[in-house]
Design brief:
Elements (H helix, E strand, L loop, with lengths): L21 E5 L3 H7 L4 H22 L3 E8 L7 H24 L3 E5 L7 H14 L6 E8 L1 H17 L10 H6 L11 E4 L18 E4 L9 H13 L13
Parallel strand pairs: 1-2, 1-5, 2-4, 3-4, 5-6
The structure holds 3-methylbut-3-enyl trihydrogen diphosphate (2 copies) and magnesium ion.
């Protein structure tokens, strides 16, 4: 289904739910999902990719405009080498096998994170999927890969410092917009929701700047179990939250 023709409000039976413009997800619990079934951790990662496809489809059907998913952190290199290479391979496969359906669904893909340290082939695949989907006008899918929030802010500081040193930017002209524009996520609004699966309640270096006012939602399900029922539960929780952004909101008490 293409986003242009997709329903931009929730399916009728779910009217009343607030649809966030941007959902960010820490897709956690693949290893525990596998362990609970007597499988090896890598099988959990394979199922995790299927859950990601379900999320993208749900995002399109429910009219979510931006999804940012945490698929590999800059700290995940600390894992055993075999697991790391398996996850890198999965990114290849996701991009290769899903490119056709992402194109059909009008999804624009951006891989956010540091490219340093990634091998040439992987960088080529990343640039390729970004280039090919660049003019798609539907759902924006940001895949955080080799991503760390502190590294992202450090990169932003470095690029702003370079402009100041070159004399093209004055220190007094550095605003919050300057910083936001220097982040990997430039162009996407801040996430309305940061969802983390698997019962862990921490941010793990994800979207440190962008998450300043995100609604944090932690659920017990492991990522590979994510489905429409889970998605609706998250929308339900979000719809009941009162966002204040430092003000008093619509119902001051
Ligand atoms: C999330 O699942 C995927 C990645 C971090 C790559 P985990 O692999 O962290 O699964 P658990 O937390 O060990 O269950
Ligand atoms: C966060 O999960 C990173 C991803 C989901 C890709 P981790 O499993 O790596 O986080 P910690 O180590 O439990 O904080
Ligand atoms: Mg984990």
């Amino acid at each position: 289904m293409s986003v242009d023709t997709a329903i931009v409000a929730p399916p009728a039976e779910h009217a009343g739910l607030k649809i966030p413009a941007h959902i960010a997800v820490i897709m956690d619990g693949n290893g525990r999902w596998a362990k609970a079934r007597g499988k090896v951790r890598t099988e959990g990662h394979v199922e995790g990719v299927k859950a990601l496809r379900r999320l993208v489809d749900l995002g399109i059907r429910y009219g979510v405009k931006h999804l940012t998913v945490f698929s590999f952190s800059s700290e995940n290199w600390r894992r055993p080498r075999e697991e790391v290479s398996f996850i890198l391979g999965l990114l290849f496969r996701f991009v290769a096998s899903d490119l056709a359906s992402l194109m059909r669904d009008n999804v624009r893909v951006r891989i956010i994170g540091t490219r340093d340290g990634l091998d040439e082939e992987l960088r080529r695949v990343i640039s390729d999927v970004e280039r090919r989907t660049a003019t798609n006008s539907g759902l924006q899918l940001n895949v955080a890969f080799n991503y760390g929030g502190k590294a992202e802010l450090t990169d932003a500081a470095r690029s702003i410092a370079a402009r100041v040193a070159a004399g093209t930017l004055l220190p007094d002209d550095v605003t919050e917009d300057t910083v936001a524009a220097a982040l990997y996520t430039h162009g996407s609004p801040d996430p309305d929701i940061i969802l983390r699966t698997s019962g862990e309640q921490r941010i793990s270096n994800f979207l440190l700047w962008q998450g300043a006012y995100s609604e944090l939602i932690f659920i017990e399900e492991n990522w590979p179990d994510f489905d429409e029922a889970t998605f609706l539960k998250v929308l339900d929780v979000y719809s009941a939250r009162q966002r204040r952004f430092g003000g008093l909101g619509s119902d001051p008490r």
